[in-house]
Fold this sequence. Notes:
- By secondary structure, the protein is α+β, with helices and mostly antiparallel strands.
- It is 33% helix and 24% strand.
- The chain contains 7 helices and 8 strands; from the N terminus they run ααββαββββααββαα.
- It has helices at 4-9, 12-16, 36-45, 101-113, 119-125, 148-157, 161-168; strands spanning 22-25, 30-32, 50-56, 67-71, 77-82, 91-100, 133-137, 142-144.
- The strands form 3 sheets. It has a 4-stranded mixed sheet.
- A hairpin with a 5-residue loop joins strand 4 (67-71) and strand 5.
- The longest helix has 13 residues, at 101-113.
- The two termini are 32 Å apart.
Amino acid sequence: YRGTADAMWQNIDFLKERHEPYVIIASGDCIYKMDFNKVLDYHIQKQANITVVCAKCPEGDDIKRFGVVKMDTDGQITDFEEKPMVAHSNIVSTGIYVIRRRALIELLEQSNREGRYNFVTDILIRYLGMKKIYGYMLDDYWRNISTIDAYYRTNMDFLNRDVRMHMFEEGAPIYSK
C-alpha cells in the first residue's frame, strides 16, 4: 500500500458491497478503550462530513510523530498539521475517523484518479475548509505504540493498577491472557 487511502482504495469492493451508512476507520497501532456508538452519535449530531477522534498528546510522547489539530469552541477542526516541526496545540489525531460510507467511496475514487494515496494529507487536510470536519475528544487512556519506546512505556503503564482496572475490568471487559 502506498498510504492509508490507497489501502482503502485497493479494498473498495468491500465498501461497495456493504449497506451500512457509516464507516469507522481505526488505526491498528493504538491502545484505547472507547464506545464507538458515542463517536457515531456525536458525528450525526454535528452533521459532520468527517469526525476525527482526538486526544491530548500523552505526556512524554513526541508530538511531532502525530497529526496535530486545533478546534473551535463547537469542535470543528480549524487546523490540522501532519507531524509538524513545531506544534501549536497539544491535541492530536488518534487515527480514528467516522465518515459516511458513500462519501468515503467518492473521496477514495477522486483521490485515486489524482494519484493521491494518503488519507490525512490528501483527504483530511485537503478538504479541511470545504467539508465539515469535527474533532471528538477522547478523554480517556489512549496511547500510540508505533515505536519501541512508546510500546515499552505503554506496557509500563499497565503496571499501574488504575490503568489495568480501567482497561480490563470496568464496563465492557477485555478478556486476555
